[in-house]
């Protein structure tokens, strides 16, 4: 059975704000606000005390501005974002579990060696994301973004940056999103209780060749079907690549996901 292969735990519950989150019930999560179940491709143990109401306390205040620019270049080949100072997070994937559908990578999330023709001494790995057959809300790959200190995990403060830049190779249509706590359920590190997961983001049409793409904070918007929230770069909980059912099947590569320095914010994007 596909479901047993993929597992059934909520991905966001185990990949985001450790001390701020609680474990969701198996497969009980709803992505896309359409009643779909989320299945987990990655599971990490939560710290002691996670999920208890009083553990939300340490996350009430914004964390200090993070200065780590690189989110991941995948060169370490692991399922974790590039380790910045007091910053951590695990890559995850989830789909609507349509019978017979596929999604890779499966648990644990893993980077893949680039084809020889695209590989260089400093760039050997990227994330190779494929999915087919999902018919409800689609598929999502992403990474939790945590401010970590002394075992506490809270929303990350990326307000010192202007947006997100990434390299990708399609073809395909994706929506890059970054979620604030207000649109994220408690088991994903947020405070949302109704019509959740409508994260701010931007649609990208990926070309067949490697290219660079940018998402500036001011160019992000919600889908409009969920709980309305203001985008606050001072408090984000994850970044994700979303593919809807109309854009499947998809076979894309993702690499060099990084935050954009504010000093470079006025440089023209190669794909505005
Ligand atoms: Ca790489
Ligand atoms: Ca990594």
Explain this structure.
β10 (146-149) and β11 (152-155) form a beta hairpin. The protein is globular and about 45 Å long. It has a single domain, classed as Galactose-binding lectin (Jelly Rolls). It has two helices and 17 strands. The protein has helices spanning 2-6, 11-15, and strands at 30-31, 36-37, 70-72, 87-88, 91-95, 102-104, 112-113, 125-132, 139-144, 146-149, 152-155, 161-169, 172-179, 200-206, 211-216, 238-243, 250-261. Strands 3, 6, 7, 8, 12, 15 and 17 form a seven-stranded antiparallel sheet that branches. It has a five-stranded antiparallel sheet with strand order 5-9-16-13-14. By secondary structure, the chain is mainly beta. Helix content is 4%, strand content 33%. The structure holds calcium ion (2 copies).
Question: What are its keywords?
Answer:
33% strand, five-stranded antiparallel sheet, Jelly Rolls, mainly beta, 272 residues, binds calcium ion
Question: What Rg do the Cα atoms give?
Answer: 17 Å
Helix amount: under 10%
Series of H and E elements: HHEEEEEEEEEEEEEEEEE
Overall 3D geometry? globular
Helix tally equals 2
Uncertain stretches:
1-43, 49-55
Structural class by helix and strand composition: mainly beta
Chain-averaged pLDDT: 83
Number of strands: 17
Major β-sheet annotation: 7 strands, antiparallel
**CATH architectural name:** Sandwich
Number of domains: 1
Give the amount of beta strand, in percent: 25-35%
